[in-house]
Write a structure and sequence with these properties.
The protein has about 325 residues and is mostly beta strands. Among the domains are: about 70 residues, SH3 type barrels (Roll); about 70 residues, Roll (SH3 type barrels), CATH 2.30.30; about 60 residues, SH3 Domains (SH3 type barrels, Roll). The protein is built from 1 helix and 22 strands. Strands 1, 4, 5, 6, 7 and 8 form a 6-stranded mixed beta sheet that branches. Strands 14-13-12-9-15 form a 5-stranded antiparallel beta sheet, with no helix packed on it.
């Protein structure tokens, strides 16, 4: 008995089914290729800062891995959630993170994958702050942090009197009064420091008894100084009031205007517009004082004037700290 031949209708249905299956396979492969392409998206860039720290995490308190210099070519492979830090690769250095505003990009950075979240930061506001192993004076001192030291804010004590921080990869505690922060202290998580340190017993030092020496004095007569009855008195000479190093000069007074701000990073680009796609006019450096005279709509960039030569341009507000708050009517510039 010969097998029956499928009808034309059945053959058409089978062909449609096979075509649909093939289209589905092709669509799946294309989607996977697109996903892989997005996961491996990179951006070529050039370092614009004079010297740029490469760190092992996206924060100013992370440990420094290397330093790269102006003009170095890098490949940007990832970013944090606010695009304030980007992860880079370059010849001769480990893969690490740099401040996003220190690079000149050849493409837009938003397609880069987000692999880290933003870490709040602050700066030491006193001459020297003790860096301790725990939140209290009873804890040991790791070292001291000088004025202007950048720190990551990782947590706080229950009363917010102490902050758990990180600088150059080292974690510890500092008094909150010694830190200028970028957010309210209550927004930081409470960190349990563990048990208090056990005080060590004092070490007894044996007393050493020294014999009391007996002094012997021999009186030596001092002859009187002869006086010349014909000598004229010497006129008095004014006593100088200046210090041994020279006369005391008045200390110059720096007048700070509303909107005066301090640069908080090693070297910061001043750009022609409010974004990293604009060209660099010049650099300002850690501790430089500038005057903020305008801003963009969300205040992520500030229009500043330098105090040394009056240069005007845009800087990222991520890297400035206000000494005197700006006026409420600070103009929003296009």
């Amino acid at each position: 008995m010969r097998p029956s031949t499928p009808s034309p209708t059945v053959r058409r249905a089978a062909a449609i089914l096979i075509s649909a299956l093939l289209l589905g396979v092709f669509a799946f492969v294309a989607t996977r290729q697109t996903a892989v392409a997005q996961d491996t998206y990179t951006v070529p860039a050039t370092v614009t800062a004079g010297a740029l720290n490469v760190r092992n995490g996206p924060s100013i308190g992370s440990a420094r891995l290397a330093v790269i210099f102006q003009g170095a070519e890098v490949t940007v492979i990832a970013r944090n959630d606010t695009t304030t830090w980007v992860q880079i690769q370059a010849n001769g250095i480990p893969t690490g993170w740099v401040g996003a505003g220190n690079l000149d990009y050849q493409d837009f950075t938003n397609p880069l994958p987000v692999t880290a979240t933003t870490v709040p930061f602050g700066f030491i506001n006193t001459g020297l702050a003790n860096f301790r192993t725990g939140p209290g004076f009873e804890f040991g001192i790791i070292g001291t942090l000088p004025l202007g030291t950048a720190i990551d804010l990782l947590g706080r004590s229950p009363g917010s009197g102490w902050l758990y921080v990180r600088t150059e990869g080292q974690v510890g505690w500092v008094g909150s009064a010694t830190v200028n922060t970028t957010l309210p202290l209550g927004a930081l998580p409470i960190v349990d420091p563990g048990p208090l340190p056990t005080p060590s017993a004092p070490t007894a030092i044996p007393a050493t008894i020294f014999p009391t020496p007996t002094a012997t004095f021999t009186a030596t007569p001092i002859p009187p100084t002869p006086v010349d009855p014909t000598a004229s008195p010497v006129p008095g000479t004014p006593v100088p009031t200046n210090t041994p190093g020279g006369p005391i000069l008045p200390t110059p007074t720096v007048v700070l205007e509303p909107g005066s701000a301090r640069i908080t990073t090693g070297a910061l680009n001043v750009r022609t517009g409010p974004g990293i796609q604009f060209s660099v006019i010049r650099l300002v450096f850690l501790g430089d004082v500038v005057e903020v005279i305008g801003r963009n709509s969300d205040f992520s960039w500030a229009f500043i004037e330098t105090t040394d030569d009056g240069t005007q341009g845009w800087v990222s507000t991520f890297y400035i700290e206000f000494i005197i708050p700006p006026p409420d009517d600070l103009p929003i510039l296009p």
